[in-house]
Design goal:
- It comes from Candidatus Kentrum eta.
- This is Transposase, YhgA-like.
- InterPro entries: Transposase_31.
- The chain is α+β, with helices and mostly antiparallel strands.
- The protein has one domain.
- It is built from 3 helices and 4 strands.
- The strands form 2 sheets. Strands 1-4 form a two-stranded antiparallel sheet. Strands 2-3 form a two-stranded antiparallel ribbon.
- The radius of gyration is 15 Å and the shape is globular.
């Protein structure tokens, strides 16, 4: 295996999202204000990169986070 970056954008985003504080900043920058006004100020919580939904289908992601809303609920189970 070489050290060449085959997918530089993918590596950049994975690195960018590897720290919850940076991920939180990116979410607040890219999501509409109509959404971010309901998010709690704490950084998002990293979650497992795969999960099973209510129909027992498995899903995979590069990065997955749980965010809390201002009323204390979780925006991701």
């Amino acid at each position: 295996m070489t050290d060449d970056i085959a997918h530089p954008h993918d590596r950049f985003m994975k690195d960018m999202l590897s720290r919850p504080d940076r991920a939180g900043l990116l979410l607040r920058e890219r999501l509409p204000e109509a959404v971010t006004r309901y998010l709690f100020d704490d950084p998002p919580e990293p979650m497992q990169d795969s999960f099973v939904d209510e129909r027992l289908r498995q899903h995979f992601s590069d990065r997955l986070f749980r965010v809390r809303t201002i009323n204390g609920q979780s925006a991701f189970p």
